[in-house]
User: What shape does this take?
Amino acid sequence: MKKQKYGMPVESLLKGIEVTRQDLDFLCSLTEVPDEEFPIPDAVEYSYAIVALTSQLTYMVDNIAKNELSEDEELITISQKELYKLTELSDKVEEALGRLRACGISLKSN
Assistant: This one.
């Protein structure tokens, strides 16, 4: 049985990588260059968010970005298994960022 393959726009993958990297860079900056305006009220929730973002970024860069491109190079091939994994990682990021917002750190407003 042939495995189902999907096409993800390359632009969407690149944007996802960029946004995830920016979010991760911002959170890391809170400990690298502490600012009294942005204290980390809960180290566990903060760490969970760092791990979730790192996992998502690593998966996009090390797995998805290495897949084959379409002939016009506008789509990247993604398997159903990879799509499920990416969705799972995205859900974990959203959950982690929601928990972080509850602690007073929001990537949208910061």
Remarks:
- The chain has three helices and two strands.
- The longest helix spans residues 10-32.
- The first strand starts at residue 5 and ends at 9.
- Strands lie at 5-9, 75-79.
